[in-house]
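As a next step, the fold was encoded as tokens, giving this record:
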Amino acid sequence: VKVHASGIGDECLELEPEFRDRLARKIQDSEASSSLELQLLNLQAIPEAVYRLEGLKNVDLSRNNFSVVPLEWGENLASVNSLYLKSCRMREIGPDIQIMRNVV
């Protein structure tokens, strides 16, 4: 079985190298396009590299396994116009969402 997400509870499983590389490419591509597309990846947490991105306009985190999206980008999120969280099993969005002043 190839694992693409964290384990159960506190268990942490290593990502398959192909998946890890594909994820890294998607994050790297977003720097040039100002659009981050990480949908349908079965992610349970936002990769650390995402928090360092600046100038994003569109962020698509749809169809992952987030129950809460920690918006820890700080001012880096201020430029986001569109945030997609469809089908993420979300129960809440933290108060940090207010920093996203440009979301339409």
